[in-house]
Amino acid sequence: FAGLADVSISGDIPVEGEITVPVGSRSPDEDYSTLDEPVKDTIMRDLKAVGKKFVHVMYPKKSSALLRDWDLWGPLVLCVSLALMLQGGSADSKDDGGPQFAEVFVIIWFGAVVITLNSKLLGGTISFFQSLCVLGYCIMPLTVAMLVCRLVLLAGSGTISFIIRLIVVVAMFGWSTLASTAFLADSQPPNRKGLVVYPIFLFYFVISWMILTFTPQ
Amino acid sequence: VVGPHSGGAEWALTLSTPAQGGGSAVIDMENMDDTSGSSFEDMGEMHQRMKEEEEEEGEAGAAEEEDGEFLGMKGLRGQLGRQVADQMWQVGKRQATRAFSLYANIDILRPYFDVEPIQVRARLMESMIPVKMINFPQKIAGELYGPLMLVFTLVAILLHGMKTSDTIIREGTLMGTAIGTCFGYWLGVSSFIYFLAYLCNAQITMVQMLSLLGYGLFGHCITLFVTYNIHFHSLFYIFWLGVGGLSTLRMVAVLVSRTVGHTQRLILCGTLAALHMLFLLYLHFAYHKVVEGILDTLEGPNMPPFQRVARDIPVVSNAVLNTTAKAIAL
């Protein structure tokens, strides 16, 4: 800036306008500067975005908000909470018969990656992370089902509790599949929707099965 | 490029080969992905490219400045060395990126997933019907969607079977075992039979073999789905011979139609038939073997209580006992 030291502006000319910097040195997500705001604002904005997506999953109508601003916070939180709740069940402590934390984690992410690859290979127009985002958010009904199952199992583990758990898990499984289909199937050519829906059905079926057969120690 | 022909009335259309993406032979799908304008990967790539250009400009400028300021042989040599290293790194990185975008592109697999649901359904039905005409090479569709979905379905069914029988896996996890078994069978046996086919001069490609074996797993899925829920041994054997046999016969017939020579046909088809049928047997018994134990304990309370019957103790031992007792009492 040595050359600017001797620039003088006469006092009666108002200087106004925008100082714009060239595109190259601007970081990608700074249409507005977010560095100076308080941390609470940043966190609240992200939380609101995540919350809005949860609402979209609860009432799955066709909207592009979930697809446009994808994020992976929601799927991460859901996956971790589901894996934590599924831990430590169904066998004595010597042998590990129940799903471990890492197992559930790997199943969810590996399954989501496979479904995304499959839908891309079948000619889908959705991007990789958008698909991961949708599949992750649609695990929410199953996480709710897991919570309900655990509460029901606290009360007892007889036939009636099994029937209640079965009904809840089947309902939530249907909800998850419908929700994710509403978002994902539109990005496919119309005659191939069935080919994309089947792996999603299988994926949520495996997760529902793990939830239904969970017996606490 | 469209240009007017010398005749004036005709237009000659020449297509220039699109040279995008640094000469990669496959169309880079990231450039055609319309809906991912705001996605992270594209921004990342753009940012990376701009950073690289900036770095190159910055380096050139910095090198010139520093050369002018730090005179002396040591500074110059260090600077030169650093530049050479940097250039080699750039070239290497560019080559690696190009190779990666060429080989790790999933579009290589795209033609194998080009199916309609009707076709998949038709092929599933056909996989249970053995062909009669074995003198003419039968057509095998080189498609991977159906086989992949069937393998995943088999994994799900295995999980269901293991859970209902409370199979306990000591070293490893339930899910890992199921996935490893199914994918291992599909990929491993396909490769082995492809190798044998190569030895026996059969006309089949790897993708066709994967597809054939994958669709052959449809019979396994049906059998296991039924017999994991209805526990009768005789039912399983009927399904094993009937359903498993049908799908094996279909695979064998297709392979026979593509091989010449009796010995070769025998080797190839014998191996495939044996492996396929034995795999079904293995899946039923290894992943469901605890069922018998559970059935027995369930029937326990219905059995008559253990009868206490007085045994006929032989006279000899009775006498020995009495003598010993007398001897001790003394």
Automatic annotation (TrEMBL), chain A:
Its membrane topology: Multi-pass membrane protein
Source organism, top-level taxon: Eukaryota
Statement: the UniProt record of this protein carries the keyword Transmembrane helix: yes
Pfam family, one: Yip1
A GO biological-process term: endoplasmic reticulum to Golgi vesicle-mediated transport
InterPro entries listed in its UniProt record: Yip1/4-like, Yip1_dom
Similarity comment: family membership: Belongs to the YIP1 family.
Name under which the protein is recorded: Protein YIPF
TrEMBL record, chain B:
Keyword Amino-acid biosynthesis applies: no
Keywords assigned: Cell membrane, Cytoplasm, Differentiation, Glycoprotein, Golgi apparatus, Membrane, Transmembrane, Transmembrane helix
One GO term describing the cellular component: Golgi apparatus
Main location: membrane
InterPro entries according to UniProt: tRNA_Mod/Golgi_Maint
Segments crossing the lipid bilayer: 144-162, 174-200, 212-231, 237-257, 266-287
Bias (Acidic residues) ranges: 53-68
Stretches the record annotates as Disordered: 1-68
GO terms for biological process, alphabetical: cell differentiation
Subcellular location: Cell membrane; Cytoplasm; Golgi apparatus, cis-Golgi network membrane
Membrane topology summary: Multi-pass membrane protein
Keyword Cytoplasm among record annotations: yes
Stated family: Belongs to the YIP1 family.
PANTHER family per UniProt: NATURAL KILLER CELL-SPECIFIC ANTIGEN KLIP1 (PTHR15627), PROTEIN YIPF3 (PTHR15627:SF14)
Function field: Involved in the maintenance of the Golgi structure. May play a role in hematopoiesis.
Protein name per its UniProtKB record: Protein YIPF3
Gene designation per UniProt: Yipf3
